[in-house]
């Protein structure tokens, strides 16, 4: 895959791990964070993935935004340590998990959230989509449709979790929740505005803008995460 390499001092390792069970990607993030807590010189990482249908709730999520029986869900449900309310992941949605050491960037969570939004806004602009932020909310909107959700966790200034950009997903799973606790704004996707759009074409564009916004030099890593080898049975989706 060809991408524009931005020449900067700090490296970004990009791992495109494809369609993978949410729990496996979650465990892999925790491994990467642990490594960076032990070695502050370790490179930043951007994990790109898709998930089979799954609902996730942030650490402080309110169950009033879930409109199904949590004891008998149709899809897997995970409560995780990120901020934010309930959201939905499924194929056709590009999920990015940046594992960054903010000591090398800026130790400011609001700045970090705005930078993630900026990456998505620039990616959408590549397709002539005028994307915007909404005051007091986190995420990115096009024509009042929320096309990207963001939820993060930062520990000792090491980031995990990240963003989910709806490219060409089946959005019906969002009907069973109040996404991100926002009842009056619909969820949308890039496919509503760009006919035939695919994840494969968006990924390198997003990586390019990620490296530009965070001033990093990208390098793709093809090897499988060690956690895949330890939990090979979980790779099946």
Automatic annotation (TrEMBL):
InterPro entries registered for this protein in UniProt: aa-tRNA-synth_II/BPL/LPL, BPL_LPL_catalytic, Octanoyltransferase, Octanoyltransferase_CS
Q: Which domain of life is it from?
A: Bacteria
PROSITE patterns named among the record's database cross-references? BPL_LPL_CATALYTIC, LIPB
Output the Gene Ontology terms for molecular function. lipoyl(octanoyl) transferase activity
Alphabetically sorted, this entry's keywords are: Acyltransferase, Cytoplasm, Transferase
| Active site per UniProt | 180 (acyl-thioester intermediate)
Say where the protein is mainly found: cytoplasm
Q: Which reaction does it catalyse?
A: octanoyl-[ACP] + L-lysyl-[protein] = N(6)-octanoyl-L-lysyl-[protein] + holo-[ACP] + H(+)
GO CC field: cytoplasm
Q: In which pathway does it act?
A: Protein modification; protein lipoylation via endogenous pathway; protein N(6)-(lipoyl)lysine from octanoyl-[acyl-carrier-protein]: step 1/2
Task: Tell me where in this chain the BPL/LPL catalytic domain is found.
Answer: 40-218
Q: What is its EC number?
A: 2.3.1.181
Q: Does the keyword Transport apply?
A: no
**GO BP terms in the entry:** protein lipoylation
Cited Pfam families: LplA-B_cat (PF21948)
Which residues are recorded as binding substrate?
Answer: 82-89, 149-151, 162-164
Give the location in the cell.
Answer: Cytoplasm
Give the positions of the site Lowers pKa of active site Cys: 146
Similarity-based family: Belongs to the LipB family.
Entry-linked NCBIfam families: lipB, PRK14345.1
Further information in the entry reads: In the reaction, the free carboxyl group of octanoic acid is attached via an amide linkage to the epsilon-amino group of a specific lysine residue of lipoyl domains of lipoate-dependent enzymes.
Q: What does this protein do?
A: Catalyzes the transfer of endogenously produced octanoic acid from octanoyl-acyl-carrier-protein onto the lipoyl domains of lipoate-dependent enzymes. Lipoyl-ACP can also act as a substrate although octanoyl-ACP is likely to be the physiological substrate.
Question: What is the protein's name according to its record?
Answer: Octanoyltransferase
- Species annotation: Adonisia turfae CCMR0081
